[in-house]
């Protein structure tokens, strides 16, 4: 190779400043004076190692670095060059890192960028490892003294013969085709085998890489080697390896005429040849054909192969060859891992014969056997497999454009663990999740594919996660800690033993790939690095992320490349090819079309993360039932679904489930002509009473234990949009005492009672199971942040119910409060996003009671949850109830009470009660009724009722009565209750008729403490200025 000067003779005047001269000891290069715009040429072949654009204003200004370590062991720096001249003559674009450069090509022009006193080229030379980390060398003695005119560099360095040229092989990474060519190589010998370990980023060869090499006129040679001891597996291993190697060769674009070298990376004895190596290679040759059979081996092995008629091509290594090169060898590997190309360690090989099995070479004169393609096989389960919804694990709402399906293992024991076990753990931990969990028996769906599961760190939003319940390691069961390690992966045979699991994985891959247009093609480590679409694994993402993300994203190594992708993806393609039932319910099992703010099972088609099949399906249902097909879940759809459910006697939610789909699409049901609306059946409160009367116990053994709630308290009530009574209870237990198992809060029951004097009777539970009172939303009691969530009060506004709840860490210690809502008549509840600090308004906005009288406002009385604080009053517009900034206080300021002021206490003096516990506010017959638990130290421990006309009336002047008083145990009566608290007004109560309330009772002392813990119904007298007991008008406050 020749050295070339960076400037052409006659275009420069000489060296204006030398290398490390006495006056400039830190000057690491030479300055060559030339006019602005003088062409700068590449002094030799190499690659662009750095493109600096205005990043060194006091020095180079803008600059280039050429890496010629493979050619000369040198890097070259060109400084003070204008970036506008950094043009690659082959692409017309700006030079980029890794671009190949050829001797004599113009790379830039002379300028005066940065800290320059005039136009010149600052030229530097650096030894290994290069400009960044290597020593600077004197350019004059190192390069310029013997440099020639760059315009004389040959423009075409091709050759008619390849004999004597070099080929490169590598496995730790993938240099670019440009880097390989710039390194002086004629091509590459590439692995068509899976990586044995994660660092083997160069395995296997991919089509993009092969295409790039061939596009530059370089040759490609295929070689199979999973590990050094492949041949120890004998004939059986040879057959398996042949199938895999041929598959990868074809996928990479390898011609059917090209050779595949099969590796014997050892120095075997003749006995090993006869008993192991020979059977292994013969298995390959039976599948591949002798004309394409190549062998990578040493000198003696070539002798034995020729003797036994194995192989046509031979690639010889030096191990055991004793310095000899076999005359039958086509390639010779003469150097191992001493040089790098593109930062990747490489081996060097010399071409010894013109035809050596290269991809575009001439086929050998032996007929290639015709291999009949495998006939398509039927799928194992033509009807697919059932998928069960099992929510709970965490997720992020929405997703990006799906690119890949990632396979995982859960690292549980094979054959033992179940999918539900993993889902339950993830639901509790909330730090990882998958879309699908598959064990050896069935499939569960834990995160909807419309949302993002937490499986592969930075690639989560563009990938679907499928996890197999089991391990990726070779030890299938164990006691104690998981002993498996990456270096001991599960064998192919171990994977294949999970026949049903793998087939279910194939089924789910087909389902997801079809839904989201993901190719059912293998994406290996390199494919992840190149951001290819298809099916991959967490293992391949971990190692591929080095290229994709620029760093290794995590340490997980599941699923290793011993996984039988060929079997699973072939089955997935067969499942994808099955005809679909056009009338199949298009949502996942257990999911439905419902409101946007519903749980993850609810699909509104308005968020933007739903697939087209969901939109098309809902539109079809809408049009078929006889309404406009909008494709979105809107009020009209809810109204139609509600009407359908009412007519069928189903639970009324307004959502469109699979049952609603089947009746309309499969069975042809249509909505009948609408009937005129009927008013809700009124609740009869009974006649007015003059003395308090206990109606009944409404919770406890024999009453609510059929809902799994023998012990409970509170029971805040409202009528649902459909007119039912909904009561929401606090801490609830399966047994009759506090703490008797199955702790839940809040829970809710429905009542269809129409005559309150007969006592409230419960019809069913809310929360999804009418026979069991489920906690209305999932959380773990006594977690590190809080212990329980208690209801304050519930209100109905239009077709939506709102519940204010207190999040507590122990009784009386409120952490925050929040608002939940239900749009399905109280059945299910969703967080509105409204969250209030426990210290809001000096801690007086923790325990709420509220109501909406119909004037567009919701009015709220509140206090602390310590039973030692006064009341404040606030209000909020109905349509802004979840906007925590929209609440305004009723407060005293500048000598007057006004809305919009900071709320000040409206009740705090002792003669009208100074301390408040639970309470209930309702607008009834044009009046306001406020029922409170008076927890005052003096004159308290009772239930007070205040009746007033306007919400801002002076509560000290409001008519007040005390229908229930607290007494000791054994002293109870119709107006006396031991350890009472938690009053709530029963819907349907009247001021001029019967007035009913719930009161809670909890025995907290004594040997039998913990029971009673229940809710009681009382009918009480209520007097007011407008409704006196004697029928007259009361002119003043009275008690």
Automatic annotation (TrEMBL):
Pfam families: Amidase_2, DUF4185, Peptidase_M23, Rv2525c_GlyHyd-like. Residues 405-531 form the N-acetylmuramoyl-L-alanine amidase domain. Residues 179-350 form the Rv2525c-like glycoside hydrolase-like domain. Residues 701-1019 form the DUF4185 domain. Residues 27-125 form the M23ase beta-sheet core domain. CDD domains: M23_peptidase, PGRP. InterPro entries: Amidase/PGRP_sf, Amidase_domain, Cell_wall_metabolism_enzyme, DUF4185, Dup_hybrid_motif, GH, M23ase_b-sheet_dom, Rv2525c-like_Glyco_Hydro-like. It comes from the Bacteria. One of its GO terms (molecular function) is N-acetylmuramoyl-L-alanine amidase activity. GO terms for biological process: peptidoglycan catabolic process. This is Uncharacterized protein. It comes from Rhodococcus oxybenzonivorans.
């Amino acid at each position: 190779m020749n050295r070339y000067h960076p400037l052409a003779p006659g275009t420069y005047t000489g060296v204006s400043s030398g290398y490390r001269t006495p006056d400039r000891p830190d000057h690491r290069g030479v300055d060559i004076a030339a006019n602005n715009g003088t062409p700068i040429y590449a002094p030799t072949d190499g690659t662009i190692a750095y493109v600096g654009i205005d990043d060194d204003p006091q020095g180079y200004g803008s600059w280039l670095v050429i890496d010629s370590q493979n050619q000369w062991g040198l890097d070259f720096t060109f400084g003070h060059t204008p970036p506008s001249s950094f043009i690659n003559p082959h692409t017309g674009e700006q030079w980029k890192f890794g671009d190949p450069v050829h001797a004599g090509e113009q790379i830039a022009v002379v300028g005066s960028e940065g800290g320059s006193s005039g136009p010149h080229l600052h030229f530097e030379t650096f030894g290994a490892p290069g400009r960044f980390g290597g020593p600077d060398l004197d350019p004059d003695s190192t390069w310029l003294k013997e440099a020639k005119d760059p315009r004389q560099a040959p423009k075409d360095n091709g050759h008619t013969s390849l004999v004597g040229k070099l080929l490169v092989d590598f496995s730790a990474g993938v240099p670019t085709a440009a880097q390989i060519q710039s390194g002086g190589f004629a091509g590459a010998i590439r692995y068509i085998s899976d990586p044995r370990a994660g660092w083997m980023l160069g395995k296997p060869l991919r089509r993009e890489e092969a295409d790039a090499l061939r596009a530059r006129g370089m040759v490609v040679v295929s070689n199979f080697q999973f590990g050094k001891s492949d041949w120890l597996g004998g004939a059986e291993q040879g057959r398996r390896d042949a199938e895999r190697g041929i598959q990868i060769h074809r996928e990479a674009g390898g011609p059917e005429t090209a050779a595949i070298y099969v590796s014997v990376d050892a120095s075997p004895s003749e006995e090993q040849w006869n008993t192991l190596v020979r059977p292994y290679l013969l298995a390959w040759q039976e599948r591949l054909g002798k004309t394409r059979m190549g062998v990578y081996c040493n000198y003696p092995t070539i002798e034995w192969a020729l003797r036994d008629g194995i192989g046509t091509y031979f690639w010889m290594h030096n191990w055991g060859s004793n310095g000899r090169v076999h005359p039958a060898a086509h390639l010779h590997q003469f150097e191992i891992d001493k040089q790098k190309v593109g930062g990747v360690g490489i081996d060097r090989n010399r071409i010894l014969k013109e035809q050596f099995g290269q991809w575009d070479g001439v086929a050998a004169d032996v007929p290639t056997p015709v291999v009949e393609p495998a006939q398509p096989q039927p799928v194992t389960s033509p009807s697919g497999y059932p998928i069960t919804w099992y929510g709970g694990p965490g997720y992020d709402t929405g997703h990006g454009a799906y690119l890949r399906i990632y396979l995982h293992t859960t690292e549980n024991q094979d054959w033992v663990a179940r999918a539900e076990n993993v889902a339950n753990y993830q639901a509790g931990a909330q730090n990882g999740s998958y879309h699908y969990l598959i064990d050896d028996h069935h499939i569960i769906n834990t995160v909807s594919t419309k949302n993002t599961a937490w499986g592969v760190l930075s690639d989560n939003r563009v990938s679907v996660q499928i996890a197999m319940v089991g391990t990726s390691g070779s030890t299938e069961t164990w006691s104690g800690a998981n002993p498996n390690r990456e270096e001991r992966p599960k064998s192919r045979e171990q994977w294949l033993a999970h026949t049903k699991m793998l087939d279910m994985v194939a089924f789910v891959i087909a389902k997801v790939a079809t839904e989201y247009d993901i190719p059912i093609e293998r994406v290996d480590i390199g494919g992840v690095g190149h951001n290819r679409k298809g099916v991959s694994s967490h293992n391949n993402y971990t190692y591929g992320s080095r290229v994709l993300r620029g760093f290794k994203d995590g340490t997980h190594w599941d699923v290793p490349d011993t996984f039988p992708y060929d079997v699973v993806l072939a089955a997935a393609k067969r499942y994808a090819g099955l005809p679909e039932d056009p009338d199949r319910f298009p949502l996942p099992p257990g999911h439905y079309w419902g409101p946007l703010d519903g749980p993850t099972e609810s699909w509104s088609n308005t968020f933007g993360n739903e697939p087209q099949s969901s939109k098309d399906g809902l539109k079809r249902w809408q049009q078929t039932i006889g309404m406009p097909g909008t494709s979105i879940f809107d009020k009209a759809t809810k109204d139609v679904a509600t009407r359908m459910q009412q007519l069928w006697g189903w639970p009324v939610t307004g959502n469109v489930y699979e049952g609603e789909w089947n009746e309309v699409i499969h069975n042809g049901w249509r909505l009948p002509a609408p009937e005129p609306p009927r008013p809700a059946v009124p609740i009869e409160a009974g006649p007015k009473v003059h003395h308090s009367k206990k109606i009944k116990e409404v919770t406890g053994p024999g009453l609510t234990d059929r809902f799994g709630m023998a012990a409970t308290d509170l029971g805040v009530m409202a009528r649902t949009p459909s007119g039912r009574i909904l009561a929401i209870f606090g801490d609830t237990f399966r047994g009759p005492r506090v703490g008797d198992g199955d702790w839940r809060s809040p829970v809710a029951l429905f009542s269809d009672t129409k005559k309150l004097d007969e006592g409230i009777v419960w019809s069913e539970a809310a929360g999804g199971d009418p026979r069991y009172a489920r906690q209305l939303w999932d959380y773990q009691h006594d977690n590190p942040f809080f212990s329980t969530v208690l209801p304050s009060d519930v209100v109905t506004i239009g077709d939506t119910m709102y519940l204010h709840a207190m999040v507590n860490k122990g009784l009386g210690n409120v952490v925050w409060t929040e608002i939940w809502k239900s749009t399905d008549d109280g059945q299910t509840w969703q967080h509105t996003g409204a969250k209030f600090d426990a210290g809001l308004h000096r801690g007086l906005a923790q325990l709420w009671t509220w109501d909406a009288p119909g004037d567009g406002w919701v009015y709220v009385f509140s206090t602390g949850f310590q039973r030692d604080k006064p009341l404040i009053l606030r209000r909020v517009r109905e349509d802004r109830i979840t906007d925590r900034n929209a609440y305004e206080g009723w407060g005293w300021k500048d000598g007057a009470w006004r809305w919009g002021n900071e709320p000040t206490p409206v009740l705090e003096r002792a003669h009208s009660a100074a301390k408040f516990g639970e309470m209930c506010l309702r607008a009834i017959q044009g009046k306001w009724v406020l029922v409170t638990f008076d927890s005052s130290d003096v004159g308290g421990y009772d239930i007070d009722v205040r009746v007033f006309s306007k919400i801002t009336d002076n509560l000290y002047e409001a008519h007040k009565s005390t229908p229930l008083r607290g007494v000791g145990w054994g002293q109870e009566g119709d107006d006396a209750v031991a350890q009472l608290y938690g009053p709530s007004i029963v819907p349907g109560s009247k001021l001029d008729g019967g007035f009913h309330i719930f009161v809670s009772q909890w025995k907290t002392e004594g040997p039998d403490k913990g029971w009673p813990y229940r809710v009681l119904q009382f009918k009480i007298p209520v007097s007011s200025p407008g409704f006196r007991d004697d029928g007259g008008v009361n002119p003043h406050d009275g008690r």
